[in-house]
Amino acid sequence: MEEEKKGLQAKAGGDESRIITSTRKGDRGKTRLLSGEKVSKSHLRIEVGGNLDESNAALGLAKALTKNETIRSTISVIQKHLIILGGEISSGGPGGLSTRIEEEHIAQLEQWIESLQKAAPLPRRFVDPGANPVSAALDLARSIIRRLERSMVLLEESSPSTRQQAMSYVNRLACLVFTLARYAEKFEQPEPGETNATRRPAPDD
Questions:
Q1: CB–CB of 62/73 below 8 Å?
Q2: In terms of DSSP H, where are the helices of 92-102?
Q3: Where residue 48 sits, what CATH number does that domain have?
Q4: Among the ranges 6-15, 157-166, 170-179, which has the highest mean pLDDT value?
Q5: 204 belongs to a structural domain
Q6: C-beta separation of 125 from 109 below 8 A
């Protein structure tokens, strides 16, 4: 897990260096947490870390696709938050960490949700993901974040160590990303020749 993130530098002749991303240390299905503890790659904490990494990657896809500065800048800040959260998860808790998820991070998400919903009120209908590439990527990210949340709950139930702020942050993050997707449906400019897909009416409409 951590070996992939850090990589290793090795001399490749002269003043040039190359990055080795395959250390072979995980070939037997083991990896190390930031705490130094060696665990199986099937460990729940590794599952949570993988879901967090996947959430970050999906948000990165949306950021790469969007032309909207509000969406791009919001995702950039979220990704910084996720790095902080990843440190908490991989270390087994906030002990010894200089930075961790706090109430101020949660408040920032709530402020964004309120602001975005004023600009793009949530539909009173079920939503078919795929109105445009950006909203589709955000809906994918939101579903992965919900998986991250479920795995964090499982980890907490088996080995209590996750701070309430971290749990609240992820729950609020999924709400924010859903709101961002609806914002993208309204404000993301379609490519030439493309149109935004229509939403599916709710059963009681």
A1: no
A2: none
A3: 1.20.1200.10
A4: 170-179
A5: no
A6: no
Give the pLDDT confidence of 81-137 residue by residue, as tens digits.
999 999 888 877 655 566 889 999 999 999 999 999 999 999 888 888 999 999 999
The answer to whether residues 106 and 164 touch, using CB atoms and an 8 Å cutoff, is no
Considering the domain architecture, whether residues 4 and 87 belong to the same structural domain is answered as: no
Q: Token pair for residue 15? A: 């003043």
Q: Number of structural domains, the chain?
A: 2
Tell me the average pLDDT of the chain. 81
Task: Give the whole-angstrom CA distance, residue 144 versus residue 165.
Answer: 19
The residues with which 19 forms a beta bridge, in sequence order, are 9
In this structure, the answer to whether residues 176 and 106 fall within a common structural domain is: yes
Which of 49-58, 64-73, 92-101 has the weakest average pLDDT? 92-101
**Per residue in 143-153, pLDDT tens?**
999 999 999 99
What is the domain extent for residue 2?
A: 1-32
Give me the residues paired with residue 32 across strands.
Answer: 38
Q: What is the pTM of this model?
A: 0.78
Amino acid at 198: T
Beta strands 30-32; 38-40: pairing state: antiparallel
- Is 54 found in the same domain as 19? no
Report the SS3 class of residue 58.
helix
Q: In angstroms, what CA-CA distances link 11 with 14, 21, 26, 95, 107?
A: 8, 14, 22, 36, 46
Buried b / exposed e over 139-172, threshold 16 CB at 10 Å, is bbbbbbbbbbbebbeebbeeeebbeebbeebbbb
